[in-house]
Write a structure and sequence with these properties.
- The protein is built from 16 helices and 18 strands.
- Helix content is 38%, strand content 21%.
- The strands form 4 sheets. The protein has a 6-stranded mixed beta sheet. The chain has a 6-stranded mixed beta sheet with strand order 15-16-14-13-17-18, sandwiched between helices.
- A hairpin with a 3-residue loop joins strand 13 and strand 14.
- With 437 residues, the chain is α+β, with helices and mostly antiparallel strands.
Length: 437
């Protein structure tokens, strides 16, 4: 039996899942799970990369301990964020995308290259945290001086395991610096912004091998394994797994909701620009999609109101509420508020709407708001591609929420097909298993 390891790290937790083929089906078993989250450091929101790497290594050790030998492993994470290196030395800190450091750089980048022009090059939607704005902030603050490499987070963690530095296409595509048509870093953008050219070499495709674990890492984890680049952006791995028999849209529902379709080529036109749709890399296709704040608002309300309750209970109780006012979950005020409950109160009061009275009201507001923005996003997508859809696939943790699924089905007026599985890990494993075929 050949065993493969998917290391799937999200903004709130990470998991190590071993997969293998048995009677023609992929079987999986979770061997390790760990918490993750941004940390405040000197007034900034950052990632603890040492803690992340320690957990990556511990999970590999657990997999070896339980399964004996792992053929290969691959790491996926969220997009946008990265680590700067001077040789082997990490430039601290590693900023998190929810930090507000890009407010000034956004205007300066757009003064050099207007956003509409940027979009026609890259096809990437405007988000305040896009890598391009973060790197420009680094440039202005002198953090790029002497820097030899910038590696997106899964690339960095893979480098720590192997000593090999490579960009990976799907993850690099989230940066806002890749040419949508060629899949290569757009050197015109790099040069006009004054970013160091040597940082932007050609990305590797999913399935590329980085080689074996470094000897000292293999000793720590109790065995040797090949390290592979999967579709390192977690949504790209999730979309690669979705068993779609048609070209209907999907939602990869987690901390973020990624709403989109597989497209044979980039769509960078005025309609997609106006709707703020993005063209990110997939495994042989483009993921035309939209970022929606997603279950982040629910997770944050849970933290504020009832951390002891599980999400199933929260959804069941929300269904008893008659409160149905909504908020724009993509509004900037919901990005990283100190208190999500207060952010809801302030937003609703500013709109002249009555405030929720119970915790069930807050969650019902969140669920109705998500269903509403899914419906708006579907209508925009249909305008961009010029066709109507009758089905919507939902994968990931959010697909377990039957109440939200029903609200989504009613709001979008399509059939919802919920696939409440670890789609990202399955896509990660699929790419590893299919290498060489």
């Amino acid at each position: 039996m050949r065993y493969y390891l998917a290391i799937d790290i999200g903004a709130s937790s990470g998991r190590h899942i071993v997969g293998w083929m048995e009677n023609g089906e992929v079987k999986t078993e979770e061997v390790y799970r760990f918490p993750n989250g941004v940390k405040e450091q000197n007034g900034s929101l950052t990632w603890d990369t040492e803690e992340l790497f320690r957990n990556v290594v511990e999970g590999i050790r657990r997999a070896n301990e339980q399964f004996g030998k792992i053929e290969s492993l691959a790491i996926d994470t969220w997009g946008v964020d990265y680590v700067l290196l001077r040789g082997a030395e990490e430039v601290m800190p590693c900023y998190a995308y929810r930090d507000d450091r890009t407010a000034g750089p956004i205007e300066k980048v757009h003064a050099v290259i207007p956003f509409e022009e940027l979009y026609m090059h890259t096809g990437i939607q405007f988000q305040t945290f896009n890598t391009i704005y973060q790197l420009y902030d680094d440039l202005e603050k002198g953090r790029l001086e002497g820097v030899t490499d910038f590696l997106m987070l899964p690339e960095y963690l893979s480098y720590r395991l192997t000593g090999v530095k490579k960009h990976e296409y799907t993850e690099a595509s989230t940066s806002g610096l890749l040419c949508a048509e060629t899949g290569l870093f757009d050197m015109e953008i790099v040069d006009r912004l004054g970013l160091p050219r040597h940082l932007f070499y050609a990305p590797s495709k999913p399935g590329t091998s980085l080689g074996l674990l470094k000897p000292e890492v293999a000793e720590r984890v109790g065995g040797q394994a090949e390290v592979v680049l999967c579709a390192s952006h977690d949504t790209a791995s999730a979309v690669e797994w979705i068993p779609m028999e048609d070209d209907n849209p999907y939602i990869s529902s987690g901390t973020w909701s990624l709403f989109g379709i597989k497209s044979a080529r980039p769509i960078c036109n005025q309609a997609s620009l106006k709707a703020n749709y993005t063209n990110e890399g997939g495994v042989g296709y483009i993921r035309l999609l939209k970022n929606i704040m997603g279950m982040w608002v629910v997770q944050s309300l849970r933290r504020d109101l009832c951390p002891e309750k599980d999400y199933g209970t929260i959804a069941a109780e929300a269904e008893t509420s008659t409160y149905s006012e909504t908020v724009d979950v993509n509004a900037e005020v919901f990005m990283a508020p100190p208190c999500m409950k207060q952010a809801f109160d302030d937003y609703l009061a500013g709109q002249g709407k009555p405030l929720p009275q119970t915790e069930q009201d807050y969650f019902n507001c969140a669920f109705h708001s998500l269903a509403k923005i899914y419906a708006v996003s579907l209508a925009e997508l249909e305008t961009v591609v010029g066709k109507k859809y009758d089905k919507l696939y939902i994968v990931g943790g959010g697909a377990k929420n039957n109440y939200l699924n029903r609200l989504t089905e009613a709001a979008c007026k399509v059939k919802v097909v919920a696939l409440p599985v670890e789609a990202t890990a399955l896509g990660n494993l699929k790419i590893q298993m299919n290498r060489g075929e």
